[in-house]
Amino acid sequence: MASRRKARILAFQALYAWDASGGDVAGLYDFAWLEDDKRASLDEEVAAFARLLAAGTLENIEAVDAAIKAHLENWSFERLKRVDLAVLRIGTYSLLFQRDIPAQITIDEAIEIVKEYGSEDSYRFVNGVLDGIWKSIREET
After folding, report:
1. Is residue 1 scored above 60 in pLDDT?
2. Which of 20, 24, 86, 135 has the highest count of CB atoms within 10 angstroms of its CB?
3. Read out DSSP for 93-134?
4. pTM (2 decimals)?
C-alpha cells in the first residue's frame, strides 16, 4: 500500500478518534490511540502527511463542514455516520486546500478508504458529496 494511502487512513482514524472523543486533540497528532507496536513501527513520512491532513482539516473545520453541508441532499449533517464524516472531512480539506493534489486522486482515495471502513453504500454517498464539492470549486475558479 502506498505511503500516502497509509497516511490518509491514519488521518481518517485520527479524525474519527477526535469526533468520538468529543473534540479532544490530546494525543491525536502523536497517534496515542494506536496500538504501541503500530505506533513504534510508523514510518515518519506517513506520520507527517497524516498529521498534515488531520491538523489542516481541524484548523479549517468550519469551512470543511460548511462545504459538506452545502452538498448534502435530503440528508442532515447530524445523521452522517462517523466513518463517512471523517472520510468526507479529509477529502473536503484536500479538495479545498491542497490544490496540488489532483482532485480525482483525492476522491478515489476517499472512496477506497470508505469502502474498507464504511458501510456497503458509503462509497456512493462519499463519491457524490466530494464530486459535488469539486464541481463547485471548479465553477468558482
Report:
1. no
2. 86
3. HHHHH-TTS-HHHHHHHHHHHHHHHS-TTHHHHHHHHHHHHH
4. 0.94
Overall average pLDDT of the 31-39 stretch: 85
Report the C-alpha gap between 89 and 75 in whole angstroms.
16
Classify residue 56 by its DSSP letter. H
Mean pLDDT of 79-101: 97
Cell numbers found for residue 87: 472520510
Burial 102-128 (b: 16+ CB within 10 A, else e): ebeebbebbbbbbeebbeeebbebbbe
Please state, in angstroms and rounded to a whole number, the distance separating the CA atoms of residues 55 and 53: 6
Place of cell 491532513: 53
